[in-house]
């Protein structure tokens, strides 16, 4: 039967292995394009919202 220390050791190794797998997955070349697209999508949404609000203020000024 395993004692508590051995169980904690196995758990620590499992967490370390999961961390390494996540790091390798997130920095893989296959995921770079997807992550870049997601990162730039936020900026594209902001730019489109700014254009829409700019058009709204222009049309309000023209009505006056």
In percent, how much strand structure appears in the residues? Answer: under 5%
Record field, number of beta strands: 0
Q: Count up the helices.
A: 2
N-to-C order of helices and strands:
HH
Structural class category: mainly alpha
Question: The biggest beta sheet, please?
Answer: none
The oligomerization state is: single chain
Mean pLDDT across all amino acids = 81
Question: Span from first to last CA?
Answer: 84 Å
Shape: elongated
Q: Give the fraction of residues assigned to helices.
A: over 70%
Given as residue ranges, the uncertain stretches (5+ residues, pLDDT < 50) are: none
How much is the radius of gyration in Å? Answer: 25 Å
Q: What are the defining features of this structure?
A:
mainly alpha; 64 residues; elongated; 91% helix
What would you note in describing this structure?
This protein is mainly α. It has a domain at 32-58. It is built from 2 helices and no strands.
């Amino acid at each position: 039967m395993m004692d508590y220390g051995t169980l904690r050791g196995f758990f620590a190794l499992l967490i370390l292995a999961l961390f390494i797998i996540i790091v390798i997955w997130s920095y893989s070349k296959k995921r770079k394009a997807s992550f870049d697209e997601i990162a730039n999508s936020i900026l594209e949404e902001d730019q489109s919202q700014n254009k829409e609000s700019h058009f709204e203020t222009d049309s309000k000024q023209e009505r006056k």
